[in-house]
TrEMBL record:
Taxonomic classification: Eukaryota, Metazoa, Spiralia, Lophotrochozoa, Mollusca
Full protein name: Uncharacterized protein LOC111119290 isoform X1
Region (Disordered) location: 1-23
Alphabetical list of PROSITE patterns matching this protein: RT_POL
Biological source species: Crassostrea virginica
Signal peptide: none
Amino acid sequence: MKGSPVQPTVNTHTSAQHVSNPILNSNVGEAKTTNMATKPPHPNLVYLKQSTRNNPPQPLPTPIKYDRLAFYLLGYDQNKVQYLLNGFKHGFNLEFEGKRGSQFSPNLKSALDKKEIVTGKIIKELTAGRIAGPFSEPPFPSMKISPLGIVPKKTPNDFRMIHHLSFPNKKEGSVNAGISDASAFVQYAGINDAISCIKDIGDNAFCCKTDIRSAFRILPVSPNDYELLGFYWEDKYYFDKCLPMGCRTSCKIFEEFSTAIEWIARNKLGITHVVHILDDFLFIENSKSVALEKFKLFLHMCADIGIPLASDKTVLPTQVIEFVGITIDVNHRETRLPQDKIEKCKRLLTLYQQTNRCSVKDMQSLIGVLNFACSVIMPGRAFLRRLIQLTLQVSENQEFITISKECKDDMALWLVFLDNHNGKTMFLDEKFISSHALHLYTDAAQSKGFAGIYKTQYFFGSFPEHWKEINIMTLEFYPILLSVVIWGKLWANHSILFFTDNEALVSVINKQTSRDSLVMLMVRFMVLHCLNHNIVFRAKHIPGKNNVLADSLSRLQVTEFRRLAPNAQKYPTCIPDNLKPENFWRTLQTLQSQL
């Protein structure tokens, strides 16, 4: 049964069906000042400077109840507690280290083309107290005015207003240019963390979820940074008072808050299986009733603290749920990409395969969509590298990039991923099984032949004369690839760690790339077969590994092999004709031409 959005049953932002206890509305209360320590314990903790003006401090725009948050955070990391409480009381510092000076940038064409939409959004933010204005003159002596723009949302005729804090460019002049990479660095959980929780619980797992409404906008900015967040609209000046989506540090600051909320859920509410990705929270329990009971606790905690939740994105316990845009199906033990994302990927890939150049912005858009798809189609990540590298090599003012043949080959492989698997992947066993535990061994002898052994099954053969000029790394890759083709169906939905004494081969298998065009044919062929069986294949270097069985077979010493392995099957496993050495390269080149 698919989960459905919860309709509000009481007059509140955080209601859900069957929630019996009252859920409180959150009101903005005045922030009270306390004595601050002389040395900040948190690396990002910056205390409010004494104002040179005689104006009394104004209440900060946040629904969060300081005292209730402090109560729930008892026992949490003290540095992080102080950082959060200081932020909600005095505003969060944006960690801007650049030059503070006056700057004026005109609004983007997207905003000017839809003035009524922008005006409506400004009025909404003014009403909520999250921006200040209008002012006839700049309210600060040194004020950065960054442009406004709008971008369409997924819902038709719905738009998001953006404050372009990277304008005029990322290297100088903009607000984001004054924020270091270290200050903006943040790590999130992923969809695999959610799947791991589901696998821990098993087939009885039920999932529910909710989403913090207006997430960044419930965190106030330090008044010291108001002068960085100015904008100009219809002859009036304004400035933002809450975390803007366009600021480099907004994600990191909000993640500090949402991580603390997850800690409360785990340690104060006893919700052990919870995963959050920024403002999305997913809960997994072993029965529908337990999931609902724990979910109620979380909803009431949020109401008590004043955290607004999106009722239209709140879903009660179910076994099929969409989380951060990906469908998780407990019944079928699979994850699925939404159909609209699949179609968008195909459309863009087909378009750029047929052209030799595109804009940097368009390539970045393609990379963004494919990166999202990698959450389900994990082998695709290796075939994003070249596309990403294209965008990293451009100069500051460069608008267009040339699409290389290698990039088009990677796009072709992506289309195969999407066509053959329709954006679906079974749950993967992420615990790696070593090739030793599988009793999987391969070897290649440059002057003789090749061999592969899996338990009691085996194959072997001799190399044609012209193969003996090929480098040993490529020769050793060949029986590994044959093993995946012949026995891969027996390893479906597993992660395999292959031991080899060839360091170059380890790099090729793990990075799934090579400068050698023939090796890349092998890599693509192997990736497709791993995808067919949902296998993650990795290699590890083991110096001087003991490999006597495969060693004897690769040297065509069949009698010695039978002496060492008396339980081996009487006859070897057949190698498909199209993959025998004399046909191998022709087969791979034909496959490449068909992509």
